[in-house]
Amino acid sequence: LDLNFTQAKKIAATKIDHTFKTANDLWEMTITHPQQALSVSLCSDQLWVQVYSGEKLQRQGLAVEPMSCPPNAFNSGIDLLLLESGKPHRLFFNIYGQRK
Fold it and tell me: CB neighbours (10 Å) of residue 56?
């Protein structure tokens, strides 16, 4: 199963329910629907992103969720953030669309 989407390619029938660790402090993902001439771009500063192709919803959408840590981080401790009382924690997430 090839889940490497670092270069643009069709999702087609690929089933995705996976968490990816991002390579940069700021990442951007663009999803394009060629027949509708529509694209949606998402960007975030989070280290992880969950992508789900919606098999249980007859593939009527694509879920993209920025995450500060991977699944099971409470047990593994990987990239787990400790939120301290009175201390701020901020994240950046932006969504924008475009018709072509």
Answer: 8
In the chain, the amino acid numbered 60 is: Q
Retrieve residue 84's tokens: 């301290």
Whether the CB-CB separation of 68 and 48 falls below 8 Å is answered with: yes
| pTM (two decimals) | 0.81
For residue 49, give the DSSP letter: E
Question: Distances from the Cα of 85 to the Cαs of 13, 67, 75, 81, 88, in angstroms?
Answer: 45, 21, 22, 13, 8
CA–CA gap between residue 46 and residue 97 (Å, rounded): 20
Contacting residues for 38 by C-beta, under 8 A, at least 6 apart? 32, 97, 98, 99, 100
Measured CA to CA, the distance from residue 28 to residue 11 in angstroms comes to: 17
* pLDDT tens-digit map of 13-65: 888 999 999 987 899 999 988 788 899 999 999 999 999 988 877 777 888 99
